[in-house]
Amino acid sequence: MTKYVLSLDGGGVRGLATANFLRKLEFEMHKPILDKFDLVCGSSTGGILAIALSVLKLNGSRLVNIYSSRNLKKIFSTAMPRIIGPKYGSRRKNNILKEYFGTLALDEAEVPAIVVAYDLKKRSTKLFKTFEDRHLMAWKVASATSAAPTFFPAVRIKDDWYLDGAISSNNPALIAYSEAKKLWPEENIKILSIGTGFDDKPFSGLKAKNWGIISWLRGGIIQVLMESNSEHLIAQSLCKENYLRINSRLNDVDVNIDNSSNHNLEECLKMGDQWWDQFGSETLNFLITK
Asked: What pLDDT tens digit does each residue of the chain (290 aa) get?
């Protein structure tokens, strides 16, 4: 028997492209996303989508609504310029998450979900699992997985502090595969992995060779770390035909993960459309049990 796993990358506002692709997939399958997948795994913005799917049981259109201009402009806004500390505070982001998740705990999940974060105390990857961390508040786990360094403060859950899952694994496909094998060791595992676009513009070695902390932050070191391709290459080699990756160049989408302008959000939607045009038929065929 085949078990289907959905793996969702981090990428800030570009999660809108992911949500749009899932909306189109759901429409073409003529069934809710959750009816097809046995496990959902996400990191950062992908972690928020994973919890929204599993705990809130949101359909594709309501997933897209998470990335509304109203929500994102609240999340990526600050009352005053910040010279010291993260670019944004956590209050507005947490208020949006509470609007969606309320007092729901992870044990409300209809389908098992795994959310990737980074444990500051242990300095290692933390996997929040709906089937183990049952009593944790969904909004708080969503806040932890999306606490991107330099953008948002770390998030405290019980006695520990967490940062964005992208620090350890922005593409959680290998985590998803490993955890699926633990749950179903004898089953065939198929992974649909959805990215958030990548920037392939080269850095100038002559310019970058002497960059320091500030220059690398301005140059997008967070984005560079997020776009590491190692997980994809390993998953491709390990799972072969049981792994399908949906991703592309950013093209007209802004590389900055916090650009919530109406123009950029429209480009994110277009990127999701382009993914469907390119990968839609292949995805539908991939999700047919073999």
From this structure: 899 999 999 999 999 999 999 999 999 999 999 999 999 999 999 999 999 999 999 988 899 999 999 999 999 987 555 557 788 999 999 999 999 999 999 999 999 999 999 999 999 999 999 999 999 999 999 999 999 988 999 999 999 999 998 888 899 999 999 999 999 999 999 999 999 998 765 554 565 566 555 555 555 555 556 556 678 788 888 889 999 999 999 989 998 899 999 999 999 999 999 999 999 999 999 998 65
Q: Which of 264, 51, 67 is nearest to 165 (CA)?
A: 51
Joined together, the tokens standing for residue 20 give 């749009």
All residues at 6 or more sequence positions from 179 whose CB lies less than 8 Å from its CB, including other chains: 39, 41, 114, 127, 129
- The strand pairing partners of 209, in sequence order, are none
- pTM score, whole prediction: 0.91
Alpha-carbon distance values, 94 to 136, 139, 190, 254, 276 (Å) = 15, 7, 34, 24, 31
